[in-house]
Amino acid sequence: MHVHILGICGSFMGGIAAIAKSLGHTVTGSDTNVYPPMSTQLENLGIALTQGFDTDQFEPAPDMVVIGNAMSRGNPAVEYVLDRNLPYTSGPQWLLDNLLKDRWVIAASGTHGKTTTSSMIAWILEDAGLNPGFLIGGVPENFGVSARVGVSPFFVIEADEYDSAFFDKRSKFVHYRPRTLVMNNLEFDHADIFENLAAIQKQFHHVVRCVPASGTIISPTEDEKLNEVLDMGCWSETQTLGNNIAPEQSNGMCSKNDWQTQLITADGSEFDIYHKGKLVGTVSWELIGEHNVSNAVMAIAAAHHAGVQLADAIQALSRFENVKRRMEVKGEVAGITVYDDFAHHPTAIKTTLDGLRKKHPETKIIAILEPRSNTMKMGVHKDTLASSWQEADEIHLFEPNNLGWSLKDMVANSQVPVHVYHETKDIVAQVVDTAATGDQILVMSNGGFNGIHQTLLGALAHKHQNR
């Protein structure tokens, strides 16, 4: 079958392409916004890409058109499909029909941590020899690809609450029918799709309704918004993650929560895990941040539900390599480290910076942020944004032309020095001029950010070579 994918370079649709190719289909696709790592993955798979949405791409006519949720009415390719009555479907529906209906689906959902948690789960299963399939909205370093079919009954998926397509406004994860469901957290996001938090909670409850009675739902006790979702009705086993344990509480601990942790190092690079009040092991790994500690416990719990022994799951995480664009070190020049991180929501910005600060308590942290998400552009988070970066020493903000509000409003609300720019080259020039040996430069964006990471590294190398 010839499958043609509109919007193929999105992380989810690129994963659909990889899976369709693995299932033996002829796969083609088109998009306008192409940048690594997804473009590289598609090229390596030998998938032919069309730049743009010209209707010539439908010659010869495909057997099925999979339409990404970034596609809308008025797009020439979309209108052609509708006018010619070509068979079409959404990515989530295609995945259910062609793969998920026969698998034990382990789904990781939540406003934050979906990509990292699903990557951890897939790696734990892989390390245990279970050879899972997966589809993740990023490229886990342990695998080098964002999606594969796998050969075991298990399929791990990043369960996104974003809508499925212009013709199906249900959240993607409603199609996945998970047997194991992780719900990491819940905050308001995707303001271009949801009018309020209650609308997102409704979608989360839709997926809760799909989990069988023999399935398991794993969530944090302290997240009231998720508790409200479960209070709408739950028909499955539930497991809970509680607060971190203080050292003085660790002996003889008894808790109503199924899972708890105790930090050994402040940055979260080493911590103990408790299951039903019993110490079951210690994770020592390369990741940092309490948010990743929480992600790790969720992943261990999910893998344990699938049959992995706790000791094996804990040991697997010591060999876990993080996802590209999640605190990914892009390079180091003259002792100055440049990171790339996907953070684009105030909570994610805050937790990422908190982890970096705890790892480097005495080091200068320079944060560079591009407010690129639709929610950020709409100004939904403008009142809380300044409080999210207080662990940094200085902030450099890129203000795109299509931003509906002024980032300069943030300057007065920040205790940290803030600089606003309209050109990325100006950010590079300023940061390179002031950065010194030992500094940590954290770049945060959910897009390509005009290749600023490599530009920074190149400019730093040029500066220090000429000294």
From TrEMBL:
Q: What is this protein called?
A: UDP-N-acetylmuramate--L-alanyl-gamma-D-glutamyl-meso-2,6-diaminoheptandioate ligase
**Biological pathway:** Cell wall biogenesis; peptidoglycan recycling
Any Pfam family matching the protein = Mur_ligase_C
Residues in Mur ligase C-terminal domain copies: 325-447
Look up the domain of life of the source. Answer: Bacteria
GO BP annotation list: cell division; cell wall organization; peptidoglycan biosynthetic process; peptidoglycan turnover; regulation of cell shape
- Encoding gene (name): mpl
Q: Which organism is it from?
A: Brumicola blandensis
Q: What is its EC number?
A: 6.3.2.45
Reactions catalysed: UDP-N-acetyl-alpha-D-muramate + L-alanyl-gamma-D-glutamyl-meso-2,6-diaminopimelate + ATP = UDP-N-acetyl-alpha-D-muramoyl-L-alanyl-gamma-D-glutamyl-meso-2,6-diaminopimelate + ADP + phosphate + H(+)
